[in-house]
Amino acid sequence: MVSGVKRLRFAWIGLAPFLILVLAFEILPILALLVSSLSAKDGPTLSNFGRALTPTTLAAFGNSLQLAIATAFGGTLFGTVVAYAIATSRNSAMRHVMTALANVAANFGGAPLAFAFVITLGSTGFVTILLGCLGIQLYPDFRIYSITGLGIAYLYFQTPLAILLVMPAVAGLRPEWREAAEILGATASQYWRRIALPILAPAISASFFLLFANAFGAYATAWTLTGSDVNLIPVQIAALVRGEVVLDPALADALAILSLLVMALCLIAYQYFARRMRRTA
User: Fold this and answer.
1) Tens digits of residue pLDDT in 94-151
2) CB-based contacts of 119-122 (< 8 A; 24+ apart in sequence)
3) Given 51, 160, 172, 244, which residue has the most CB atoms within 10 angstroms?
4) DSSP string of the chain, one letter each residue
5) Residue 260 in this model has a pLDDT that exceeds 80
């Protein structure tokens, strides 16, 4: 009994660095945000949240939600298809190469990604000029500096992330299940509708919510590619902190708290579907 208590005590000592890291970089910053969002010159107040719900910020929330939903849906859809193609490939070398490429692309974002898209699909980008030589004019009907162009840029890292998230579930589909369904007379669509997709549904749903949170909070790519041309919540928060138009950290913190609530709901949904995914594995 005594030795068990000692082992438990040593286990908590081993967790101490991690707990200190969580406290310093997650819990304390969130508490500081909350205190600042509730602060005013005359004391604690909720007026900052009232000021956060202006037409401009509501439009920013709408644009951020639209961008996050579109790229999360597109990334999950394309990522699931590619993950299935990789998992069912008979070429093991190709599987390793594609998985490694997905790992690299999923972590390639921010300013370098924005500059890469400017060089390729900008008004004087390589692909834009090449298509112009072929008689296809992208501009002015298409602009990489718009919310549509930003969505294309987001898909560059959203799709590889979805591949990595869905790959284990897709790899878990056993060939015997499809063979058994075919022996019993099931068509390919019936197999996918009644067997494969219900098994993959938790992984696909978890991937969608994680990609949604990833896109909703992304800032560097959006700012570098579009500046303030596209009204998004991360851009609004950064502008209020830097004081481009007006310096208002309390309002920025109120917007950040509202954004954290959206992110928290996404992460709760992700954890729910991730647990279901582990139970079906």
Assistant:
1) 889 998 999 988 888 888 999 999 999 988 899 999 999 988 888 888 889 999 999 9
2) 121/149, 121/152
3) 160
4) -HHHHHHHHHHHHHHHHHHHHHIIIIIHHHHHHHHHHT--TTSS-SHHHHHH-SHHHHHHHHHHHHHHHHHHHHHHHHHHHHHHHHHT-S-HHHHHHHHHHHHHHHT--HHHHHHHHHHHHSTT-HHHHHHHHTT---TTT--TTSHHHHHHHHHHHHHHHHHHHHHHHHHT--HHHHHHHHHTT--HHHHIIIIIHHHHHHHHHHHHHHHHHHHHT--HHHHHHHTTSS--HHHHHHHHHHTSS---HHHHHHHHHHHHHHHHHHHHHHHHHHHHHHHH-
5) yes
State pLDDT tens for residues 59-99: 999 999 999 999 999 999 999 999 999 998 888 888 899 98
What's the CA gap between 272 and 130, in Å, rounded? 46
Domain ranges of the chain: 1-37, 49-280
State both tokens at 278.
């582990």
CB 80 within 8 A of CB 166: yes
Taking the C-alpha atoms of residue 71 and residue 121, their distance in angstroms, rounded to an integer, is 18
Whether residue 67 contacts residue 74, with contact meaning beta carbons closer than 8 Å, is answered with: no
Residues 6+ apart with CB under 8 A from 91: none
Residue 153 has pLDDT above 90, yes or no: yes
pLDDT average, residue stretch 12-27: 84
CATH class of 49-280: mainly alpha
pTM of the model: 0.88
Closest CA to 208 of 146, 279, 267: 267
Instruction: From 134, 278, 158, 176, select the one nearest 221 (Cα to Cα).
Output: 158
